[in-house]
Amino acid sequence: MQLRNDLKEVRIRLSVSQAELGRRTGLSRATVGRIERGECMPSLRIAMKLSKKLGVQVEDIFHLANG
Predict the structure, then answer these.
(1) How confident is the model at residue 20 (pLDDT cuts 50, 70, 90)?
(2) What stretch of H or E contains 67?
């Protein structure tokens, strides 16, 4: 199983830019982009911070995918 994320979709649906999400979470815009593209895996702490600042559950952003 692989961890997938819908961060970009959730962020766009909520009309939040990468830069704004970075400001809210203390991450750089580039780091937000790398997480969205699956180039880096956020720690549990960062995953929880992202979900809290977007007002959604962690499971709305991160999920396990088969294959």
Answers:
(1) very high
(2) none
